[in-house]
Design goal:
By secondary structure, this protein is of the alpha+beta class. It contains three helices and eight strands; from the N terminus they run H-E-E-E-E-H-E-E-H-E-E. Strand 3 and strand 4 form a beta hairpin. The chain is globular, with a radius of gyration of 14 Å.
Amino acid sequence: MERVEKFLKDAGTYFLATVDGDQPRVRPFGTAHIFEGKLYIQTGKSKDVSKQIHANPKVEISAFKDGQWIRVAGELVSDDRREAKQSMLDDYPSLQNMYSADDDNTEVLYFKNATATISSFTDAPVVINF
C-alpha cells in the first residue's frame, strides 16, 4: 500500500472515476494518505462526487508518471472520525484553507477490497492487493 501512496503522491494528480446513474464521471484528485494502515482520499460532502460514492462505493483511480501508470479499483468507505480528517489535513496543509476536521463538509474515505496495478510498456504489471 505504501508503494501505491508514493506513486499517487509523486504523480501529484490522479483521476477518480465514479458512476452517476448510468453515466461515468471522472475528475482530478490530489490526496492520498495512509492512516491506521488504510489508504485514504479526501473530498467535500457537498460535492457530487461524494453523493456518487455513497450511492455506489465502487470506484477506480488512475495516474501516470515517468512512463508508468497505476489503476486502483476498490470500494470507498467514509470515515467520519475527527482523527482521520485531521490526519489528512495535517498531511495536506493547503486543504486547511477550505476544510476543517470540525466542519460538516470534510470527508475522508478509505479503500477496502482494493487492487492496484502498476503498468508500463516495458515491464510486467505489478499487482498490489489491500
